[in-house]
Design brief:
single chain, 6-stranded mixed β-sheet, binds NADP nicotinamide-adenine-dinucleotide phosphate, 24% strand
Length: 389
């Protein structure tokens, strides 16, 4: 690749570096105002500073490669507009699942009409934590400390464990999969921060593994349900076997059925591989065309679905006032009680009582139930695949 690094902008000027000092600056404008720089690679962990850098770079006609999912998801619409206005490519493959080429595949290969769903483990840090808890019996804080030491966690680990990072990635995936432009803050998002020992016990007793899943699923009326939440995954599911910092994405389409992408979702080298691929694509003027969005999408996001939910309550009193549409099981556990049942997604979105301390929410396998099935009362305990509970 005929690329030449002219300058590197960093935050701390006095930190030791493994390259000549003359290469570095702490002033981003040195790069942004240099007319000979035609590509800016933005890989900083400060989303606000990144936004200003990317905005100025695009507005100055410079192509941009970024891995900053938080910044991208938070400003998608504006960044799309800047690309169109200044006719410069903005590529960000590393922002979703680091080394897995999921964005470019969704963008180029999967036709809108055939795509039925995208679901995946898109956050390497939380997957690493969940693996350490399930396989080594570590407590949550120990597992988080290990993830941070290994360099898999975001500088602010709340972004990982509260599910925000996965929601940011889901909003980017929704754009490239279904042409839906939406803010991550509007998506249902539960993280792994409230999970406790009783949830791990429930998983082990039922042969499940808990994974944090981001999901976008086309419903029978063509609308799309999208959310991030921990889920009990069965051994037959490919995602069950995605461990540690690895990510996995299942793409479901009408003819090809399910296809599975697997690879490292965190870590410097894995992320760099996607950044290099984007840089290389700039050689042949590649840019996202957002065809699905441009076509005028027939897909709309919907919040009219029911979810099969398990909830763990450290304090049994907290389990009395929550709105299950149907309750299937209620079990006493060593550390509280657990309840399974059917809940409308609007309850989970709007009622903060699901987010109280000591309350954990995990979705059951095959978690989406379309409303017509519930209204028609075709959905019964016998048919809900919970026989083994
Ligand atoms: N690491 C991963 O696994 C991974 C995977 C996918 C995406 N990403 C994304 O990649 C980005 C970087 O993550 P990272 O893990 O590489 O972070 P990192 O190791 O903490 O490195 C961040 C770098 O950004 C520089 N920086 C921070 N604020 C700056 C500012 N205002 N101006 C100039 N430079 C600034 C820092 O400079 P100093 O060295 O001077 O402090 C540092 O070199 C983030 O957006 C992250 O979400 C990371």
């Amino acid at each position: 690749m005929q690329a030449h690094i002219r300058k590197v902008c960093i935050r701390q000027g006095d930190k030791p570096r493994n390259a000549p000092a003359a290469l570095f600056t702490t002033d981003a404008d040195v790069l942004l105002d240099d007319p000979e720089i035609n590509v800016v690679v933005e890989l900083i962990d400060d989303a606000d500073a990144a936004y200003h850098i990317v905005r100025k770079a695009l507005s100055s006609g410079k192509a941009v490669v970024s891995a900053n999912k938080r910044m991208i998801a938070g400003h998608l619409e504006e960044l799309l507009g800047l690309q169109q206005k200044f006719k410069v490519p903005f590529l960000y493959e590393a922002a979703c699942c680091a080394s897995i080429p999921v964005i470019r595949n969704l963008e180029e290969y999967y036709d809108n009409d055939l795509l039925r769903g995208v679901s995946g483990i898109v956050n390497g840090s939380t997957n690493y934590i969940l693996t350490k808890i399930a396989e080594e019996g570590l407590a949550f804080p120990e597992a988080l400390a290990l993830a941070q030491k290994a360099g898999f966690a975001e500088s602010d680990p709340a972004l990982d464990i509260e599910g925000t990072d996965a929601a940011n990635k889901l909003s980017i995936l929704l754009l490239h999969a279904f042409g839906i432009l939406t803010s991550p803050s509007g998506l249902l998002c539960f993280g792994i921060d409230k999970l406790g020992a009783q949830d791990s016990t429930f998983a082990a007793e039922n042969g499940y593994v808990i994974k944090l899943i981001a999901r976008a699923q086309k419903l029978s009326d063509g609308s799309i349900a999208a959310f991030v939440a921990p889920q009990f995954v069965e051994p037959e599911d490919k995602l069950c076997h995605v461990d540690n910092e690895y990510n996995g994405v299942v793409i479901e389409s009408s003819f090809a059925d399910k296809q599975f992408f697997y690879g490292k979702g965190a870590g410097g080298l894995a992320t760099a591989s996607a950044v290099l691929s984007d840089l290389s694509a700039l050689r042949y003027q590649y840019s996202y065309e957002y065809r699905k969005l441009a076509r005028g999408t027939t897909h709309e996001l919907t919040n009219d679905i029911y979810l099969k939910v398990y909830a763990g309550f450290e304090d049994a009193k907290n389990a009395t006032d929550l709105n299950f549409h149907e309750e299937w099981t209620r079990q006493k556990t060593e550390s509280g009680i657990s309840v399974t049942g059917l809940v409308h997604i609007s309850q989970l979105l709007e009622d903060d009582r699901w987010r109280r301390p000591g309350v954990s929410v995990v979705l059951l396998p095959d978690c989406i139930v379309e409303p017509q099935l519930v209204v028609a009362q075709e959905f019964t305990v016998a048919g809900c695949e919970l026989g083994e509970l």
